[in-house]
Amino acid sequence: MEYNFREIEKKWQKRWVEEKTYQVTEDDSKQKFYVLNMFPYPSGAGLHVGHPLGYIASDIYARYKRLQGFNVLNPMGYDAYGLPAEQYAIQTGQHPAITTVNNINRYREQLDKIGFSFDWNREIRTCDPEYYHWTQWAFQKMFNSYYCNDEQEARPIEELEKAFAIYGNEGLNAACSEDISFTAEEWNAKSEKEKQEILMNYRIAYLGETMVNWCAELGTVLANDEVVDGVSERGGFPVIQKKMRQWCLRVSAYAQRLLDGLDTIEWTDSLKETQKNWIGRSEGAEVQFKVKDSDLEFTIFTTRADTMFGVTFMVLAPESELVAQLTTPEQKAEVDAYLDRTKKRTERERIADRSVTGVFSGSYAINPFTGEAVPVWISDYVLAGYGTGAIMAVPAHDSRDYAFAKHFGLEIRPLVEGCDVSEESFDAKEGIVCNSPRLDVTPYCDLSLNGLTIKEAIETTKKYVKEHNLGRVKVNYRLRDAIFSRQRYWGEPFPVYYKDGMPYMIDEASLPLELPEVAKFLPTETGEPPLGHATKWAWDTVNKCVVENEKIDHVTVFPLELNTMPGFAGSSAYYLRYMDPHNHQALVDPKIDQYWKNVDLYVGGTEHATGHLIYSRFWNKFLYDVGVSVMEEPFQKLVNQGMIQGRSNFVYRFDFCGKLISKITLKSVSDNINDEDLQQAIDEAKSDSLYYTVEHSPTIFFSSEKYIDFKEGKITKQKLYDIVSSKFSYFNEIKNQYGTEVDISSITLTPLHVDINIVSNDILDEEAFRNWRPEYKDAQFVHNEDGKYICGWAVEKMSKSMFNVVNPDMIVEKYGADTLRMYEMFLGPVEQSKPWDTNGIDGVHRFIRKFWSLFYSRTDEYLVTDEPATKEELKSLHKLIKKVTGDIEQFSYNTSISAFMICVNELFNLKCSKKEILEQLVITLAPFAPHVCEELWDVLGHETSVCDAQWPAYNEEYLKEDTINYTISFNGKARFNMEFAADEASDAIQAAVLADERSQKWIDGKTPKKIIVVPKKIVNVVI
User: Fold this and answer.
1) According to the model, what pLDDT value does residue 606 have?
2) How far apart are alpha carbons 751 and 803 in whole angstroms?
3) Strand positions, DSSP E, 77-152
């Protein structure tokens, strides 16, 4: 029977749906295993072959664990809210809900064709009110909670209200936006609004003033990863830094727990290190600096308290409130201009950019250790969110301070004996301290660090700061609170209404607050977010919602929050909802959560290392604190799949915009003519029609096989000119017509991307190219010796703009889903990025056909027999089982596929058709190629799915070698090989080697000094 992959794959995809093969329920009799993919944002372009890479990798593992007897949860859904759909709606007027559903349907169609074992009964969509009900619910829980630093957990905000009424906030150790102090009497005397303002300082979900990436053209705040080089990734619109009142999540309160949790999970060291750096824990001291001739003072944070005597200037972040307070009238214009420039750069860009910029504020600060007045500067290398947004600069011992001091000519004062700071700063934390204080000046304080090691000096200074009330010892984190507001339409609505300007939560029983319809998806004329256009919310009219304490009805009307939540809101706890997606009473039933616990294997891209993975870990820890999640860490093991890159093809266009200069006009001009006279001669030539500019030439494409190295000088412009002249009449016609020489200085070869679908093995289909690009229908091609046009190629990101996108549907149609699955894994290790190249896919397809041929002959004869397997067949099979079992656990799928190919070749050569062998082979291959394996499992007489088979165990007895091939060497040089029994004694091996007639040639009548036998490897005869 012919291997008809199209019929086979349609048959089994239909049967899997009908028989609910992949639906899973909780089963206490089985050990659970939860596999999860980072779910996709469904774009209108659909999937390309790079998208399924991680899904295929996780699907193989999910199928493997099921075969091992685990109860496997492998769900899928859609991250359906976001800016792309909204921008498309703005451009076309089509509602984003419509385009999102269309995109989802397209994705689902493509995913189904590839044969994934997803339990689609658990599908979620973040734009579904049934789903974002629980995002809104979690937000309300955060709003009604504070973080207790003593208990290291979230606690109900009501606890604070009760404590404030009795004790005020004296002794309170809670995460907050700013340190404030008040008594119980002061609290009790405050109005409701004043109390709410104080509580906002402690809430985990809070309203706060913060710097954001503001894009006026898009009318919304953007995340850092949505901004590239100062413009929005979508649309390329200008983005500036702007202070706005936004909803925020107090992620920073969980910084230490986020660090500690990394020690309990199985993530790569590199990913853990990325998160550690992002969280940025540092131990140091906060120190107060007074402003000269002012009552103002400000705080700095430093990890190097030992360097206080080396401070030669201070630096403020451009966003700091101190900038306005410390800028003198004389400096205001210059400072304002600098601030205006800085607004156009994101914090991420400022961190990455090492260029030096800054402006003097006009003010000075007093160093509390030396009494010196040091200048206060403003520079964008200081960030408002880290520490206090102000730093003391010690240029001798910090590279960025050093660059700044060098650029602006500021003092550099070394504090370590023997260090050389003439060319660069001395950043090492080893050495003996000096100049602390300087011996040539009267000490301002009674602290001396001279002679101490740096480590001793740090601890001594921190102690001094604390004892003399100059500040406090503190642990600081780089991690910021998450900005949680977006001025967009297509997102989760906030379940918030306002009374007297303060936010309150809509009653929980009234959730979800559904996203209303709007006439426009742009901000309102008065600058409100798009939701300001809503004329009807879920219950009432005109930008307002009817709200009452117990129930939303028609009694009291208050304005609603018009911002929506960001994209990460819906993806932060989705793994919990997959466990219990149809529960209308809770995010997840506690018993179900107790069964599945958390994700055992999470697969996704490295681009989410500092965004999604930080936020989802924070979100889950909060849910753990409030008793919803039974596990504090959501993702136990994480694998980052690499990217499948596009293999782009190019044609090389010959471009010539040269000049034709009259020999007659220039002949009379002296060789030492100056530029002015030369220009006059040319102008005269033009007026006499003897000088012509060639603006257009016939389109000629050069084949890359011969001319790709043009830019590297391996083919000159003269050579290109000669080739064109010899093959085409173009230049000759010019010469004949004008009698002029051609200036070829402006000849270039311009690479143009070409659609890879009209290229095969880098050979261009010229007719298809002319049809694809009609403007080149008359183009001429310079071929190679075989008369073919060879395209150039490069590995780039797979993108529609580069015409290198490969649609998986085309691969499935031509080769089948099983071939696509195996080929994507065969390209290289899952974690590595690799280029897509269809040139090698035929080999994988031939392998599956050869595998099929073990069951059926070319004449459709069924070959499988019940004969017992031979020793060689068992050895080949169990060698494969051992290899694949180990490889799957290590995600080394590419080497597994090589092992499959070797095994099938061996069995084919052995003419193996034993059911005993083939059954185990089918099970082992099933996770990789499920369709063909289901078909052959059925052919073998099984009534259940191959998914319900048992993963085979390898038997070491079958892997033992009966004989060993020894390399026979003489004086260390290999000469020939001999076979010996695996248990052959060393003496017998030596005797056999000496008796072999081939040995006599190398011994040459001499007596060997000794014979060395390395067991199971080599025999070396020393002569």
Assistant:
1) 85
2) 13
3) 145-148
